[in-house]
Amino acid sequence: MTNEKTGYLEEKYESLREQGETWPLNQLETASQARPIVEGQEVIMLASNNYLDLANDQRLRDATQDAIESFGVGAGSDWSIAGYTELQDELHEAIADFKGTEAGLSYQTGFAVNAGLLPQLLEGGDVFVSDALNHGSIIDGIRLSPADVEIYDHSDMGDLENTLREVHEEYNRCIVVTDGVFSMDGDVAKLDEIQSLADEYGAMTYVDDCHGEGVLGDGHGITAEFGLEDDVDFQMGSFSKACGGFGGMLAGDQHVIDYAYNTSRTWLLSAGYPPAVAAANKKALEIIDSEPERVRRLWEKRGYFAEELQSIGYDIGNSETPIVPAMIGNSKTAKELSERLFDTGIFALAIVHPMVPKGEARIRNQINVGLSQADLDEALRVYEEIGRDLDIV
Hints:
Keywords: Transferase. By secondary structure, the chain is of the alpha/beta class. It is built from 15 helices and 14 strands.
């Protein structure tokens, strides 16, 4: 046993627990869907990234089963070592078509795109200019780079311009990096203004669109929302959210894709995901492209839930998307609200420090197109009942 050496970690954990800053692990006993079984009870799911309710779609199931019959289960090794199937080539073409770019590439995860690619894009004498609320995978990727980094205030275009003006003459190259949809607040990056400023100061742009695909731009993401498919230099995203599958994606010019898979350690040194996953991901892109009404229904449900939650008395912060937080503030109060919601059949997770700054704990609600009107109304009723009992509203 090594507890004499590692005992300090127990103390650290207990400190986190006492502050209400630990994460419970809840067992999902069915497929991810609008009304799954979690820890033995049926709940209304408000904690999933499965915005378009595709994670259990029969068409994705059929695609995976066909792929297993043709190509088996595992990838065998890293894609760069053991090769990959025609499904992977088809997926890469589908990514490019979906994102409106010359070429596409799939990664093992969205995190792997940022952690593996960002360190390879710039060198010493270069600089990243990064939004203050960018995802942790962006932060980690930039930390691995020899380039410097400057942080601009969240979505503050004045501060971004001041930062670009300051670094313009000092550094050789610059990349402005931003989330498309910020995952904790649900607000949307001002990508049109960001791109305009980047162009003015000769900077490149890198957008993490993980929460934008299937949501913005008729489902094609934030670059489609702003008509910037030909302007953003690096478009990355995820199959594990609205697409209902697994893995990350990158879209851009062919030379960007060639460079990415030849230098990203996360791509080169990680086992490829199974052929069945590639088949499901390709099918998801096809469905999103052919069913724009699915995206419209998602926005209708989001609009109703957000408006009613506010009318009850909850602060939804800066939400502009199907991520609709209920801002609470205190971590312990947020945890108690989440636990009581779960006890009443509503699965909505408390987001606490370090995922968000201290004092900004919230319940992050994520709307799923599979939720019925009755589901939304029941969730709102419970929110109001418990919120009044806890003196939140």
